[in-house]
TrEMBL record:
One Pfam family of this chain: FIST
Domain FIST: 28-215
Database matches in PANTHER family: BLR0328 PROTEIN (PTHR40252)
Domain FIST C-domain, residue spans: 216-358
Protein name, UniProt field: Histidine kinase
Originating species: Nitrincola lacisaponensis
SMART domains reported for this sequence: FIST, FIST_C
Protein origin, superkingdom: Bacteria
Amino acid sequence: MKPQLLTEISVVGLQQVIEALSESGEVHSILVFAADENGWTAEQLDPLLQSSDIQILGGIFPQIIHEGQNYTQGTVLLPLPYVLDWSVIPGLSDAAADFDTPLAGLADQWDRLPGPATHMVFVDGLSTCIATFIEAIFMNLGLEQNYLGGGAGSLSFVQKPCLITPRGLIQDAALLMRLPMLSGIGVSHGWQPISEPFKVTESNKNHVMTLDWKPAFEVYRQVVEAHSGQTFTEDNFFDIAKSYPLGISKLDAEVIVRDPLMLKEGQGMICVGEVPEGSFVRILNGTAESLIGAAAEAHQQAEKAYTQISSAAPEFGCLIDCISRVLFMQTRILEEFTAVSGDYPMFGALTLGEIANSGQDYLEFYNKTAVLGLLSTSSDSVTE
């Protein structure tokens, strides 16, 4: 079944489409990628989610993607002919939360299920313990299956319900879904360092307080203003910072990008995802050409990984791309979509952070990164 674009933004319009799909008798679950500007609330959506005869699972994102175009309003629906296994993990901003116990139980359940699978993971992108949670997934579920997902939420940076589940619309949580599909995953970002490494000497989850024992924003501002020729004011932090992310140095892996969103208490910076104390970061910058090139690289990686496990064509491509890449590239983001396109339907979301494993490397929560998944059902694929 192919992804469908619904331009009608009302919940009533969504309900009509879902009822028609339900009456067909061929659809048992629907993946939903909805745009934040639809304006849906839990009060509007919950009655539909809780009463539907078919599973409705997904997220509300800053923008959505369908066939090479991004949309600030509308919904992409992917009807599926089977019931999905899924789970919600709450408390994604609780530093004391026990993620291991529910994930270990989930791993035990899913390990018993037959056939190949891809794990789709959506999180509230404004939660403060996302990277800790992703590490817990890695420790409990491992990398035998591929992962694909991202951060739901709003560019207003106001946390609100953004994860769509049969229980209702929820926030500050994670939604895990087991798709009975083969997949090839590609990950790349295109940002390059423009500074020497700085040690993160004080941080608390996603709040970076000091770099090399100096106020974090003081260090950041000195580098960015010198490179950009721009000056930070009281109200333009994100306008400049969207072009200058932080890069966390990792051993034997690509730099993990962190998006600075806003200032806290004048000299600290709030990022999408944790920045561990004791880690080393560089300030990064890129060009439209380097980002488009990175998207092409993600496409090549995904195709190579997919052809190693299947001789059938992918049923569809799912692109999880950072919303701040759109803010940086403006209309040239369409060139990035072209770079990841192929002979398959394409859909996806523009997110607050991206989730994927790069081959058999460590599972990560990325920022400002393009993640492409090429997927097909096992019944239509031939594995080696």
